[in-house]
Amino acid sequence: MKTASIRILNELWRKVRTESLSTSTDESVAFLTAKYFETSEKIVFLAEQVVPAKPSDYLSRSDLHLKVSPLYISRVLNIAEDSKNTVIMVHSHPFETGKPKYSPSDDFGESKTSETISKCLDRNPPVGSLLLGQNDLSARAWIALSKKSVPASATVLSGLNYRIYPDLPKSDFIGRTLVDRQLRVLGKRKQDELESLDIGIVGLGGTGSSVAEQLVRMGITKLKLVDHDLFEPSNWSRLYGSSWRDTTKNRPKVALVSSYLKKINPKIICKSIQKSVMTKEVLHSLSNCDIIFSCLDRHGPRAVLNELSYQCFIPVIDVGVGLTRNNDGMLGGSIRATIIGPGLPCLVCQELVRPEMITAENLSPQEYASRRAEGYVNEREQNAPSVVSYTTLAGSLGLIIFLDFISGNSSGSFSTLLFDLSSKETMKLRSDAKADCVCHKRLGKGFSLPFSVAD
Fold first, then answer.
1. Predicted confidence (pLDDT) per residue in 210-246, tens digit
2. Residues 366 and 425 in one domain
3. CA–CA distance, 190 with 171 (Å, rounded to integer)
4. Residues 283-306: what's their mean pLDDT?
5. What is the residue range of 203's domain?
6. Neighbours of 305 (CB within 10 A)
7. How confident is the model at residue 360 (pLDDT cuts 50, 70, 90)?
8. Would you say residue 305 lies in a domain?
9. How far is 129 from 141, CA to CA, in rounded Å?
10. Measured by CB atoms within 10 angstroms of the end CB, which terminus of the chain is less buried, N or C?
11. Helix (H), strand (E), coil (C) string for the chain
């Protein structure tokens, strides 16, 4: 069954809560305009603007019921139509302190209102719904003109602040004895939220396979694995899940890692995609994810994930290893994990993705040799040196950031963890976002804006 995801930036969320959970004990209402897109799995709403209700917009209002003026809905529709957006209906149950439940009255009223909204807007879009209680929320989406709804999760994010309100039946959680020690760290609510996440991993080498195994052992049950490469003998020394027999089989990396993860937990839902991330088909699949791990060593694919992060409100954790050895044989370089997403500087801001390197990567061997000789392109590294200890550490640094992020323990003072191989010091780094960069220009555009280096 198709589900939905409603994604809201933190500043807008605070406005919505203020409008919907005022000091009044009566139910309150607000509407959000939102961009949306649909994939084969989900309807995704990207909230954009709140349209608050004035006191005169309420025709009737009590602690158990409300009715708003058609003029208010007309005002909302005009704003949504001008921006070619859809609408998310928001109302409150201020008397509920647990997870709020839609009442039969809510079902009837929303089915009629969503139908009216969908009829009046171009292309009859789906309509979102948020029901707010004092401490939690419920969400769903109404399918165009069908008067049918599907369950939805809601995500509130900005910078290092992140909260997901999942729609996951308790029966879908894994056995608590399997994650008992972790529960003692995260607590039940955060463990439940963690298990609801749909995680993407792009790149299934030493870092990506390490991340995948650790995530499954943490309790993640929904994964999308993306890598177009086949397993080669040189991968054996780093790729988790590979065995001596795999060195002669030439299997796709995604198939190898997926089968290994299912041995750890047979109940996981693991979608294996043996294609380049630089295609619209793969980006559409990844747009369903709540968080993505970028475990890549090329600038072009990382640039695409950088754009996807800001356009579709998806945090991305980028991990990497850069090893060097000087003339005296001394090992140097660094191991890094960086989180990006709305409210944080992007990979371009931090010069972790560089346009000149994307150009070099896309040249034919003949063109590259010619331009390199003329000094027009930088040297591109192939078959970079690597050791399993370092790729595993890169994955672990990314997962430390991940755990802090989803559990609310991020300090906000850094977005990168960097381990220096020469000094053996771990550094916490934070860059400033550039005003004219990807992270501002593409924010919340969804798939209405083409990706710069995808097909």
1. 999 999 999 999 999 999 999 999 999 999 999 999 8
2. yes
3. 16
4. 96
5. 171-448
6. 27
7. confident
8. yes
9. 6
10. N
11. CCEEEEEEEHHHHHHHHHHHCCCCCCCCEEEEEEEEEECCCEEEEEEEEEEECCHHHEEEECCCCEEECHHHHHHHHHHHHHCCCEEEEEEECCCCCCCCCCCHHHHHHHHHHHHHHHHHCCCCCCEEEEEECCCCEEEEEECCCCCCEEEEEEEEEECCEEEEECCCCHHHCCCHHHHHHHHHHHCHHHHHHHHHCEEEEECCCHHHHHHHHHHHHHCCCEEEEECCCECCHHHCCCCCCCCHHHHHCCCEHHHHHHHHHHHHCCCCEEEEECCCCCCHHHHHHHCCCCEEEECCCCHHHHHHHHHHHHHCCCCEEEEEEEEEECCCCCEEEEEEEEEECCCCCCCCCCCCCCHHHHHHHCCCHHHHHHHHHHCCCCCCCCCCCCCHHHHHHHHHHHHHHHHHHHHCCCCCCCCEEEEECCCCEEEEECCCCCCCCHHHHCCCCHHHCCCCCCC
- Better pLDDT: 90 or 410: 90
For residue range 130-175, what is the model confidence (pLDDT) as tens digits?
999 999 999 999 998 888 999 999 999 999 999 999 986 655 667 7
> Do 223 and 266 fall into the same domain?
yes
- Between 381 and 91, the higher pLDDT residue: 91
Asked, for residue 453, whether it belongs to a domain, the answer is no
> Residue 182 pLDDT more than 60?
yes
Specify whether 338 is located in the same domain as 396: yes
Q: Do residues 342 and 291 both lie within one domain? A: yes
Average pLDDT of 47-62? 93
Average pLDDT, the chain: 91
Pair 335, 380 in one domain: yes
Residues 96 and 214 in one domain: no
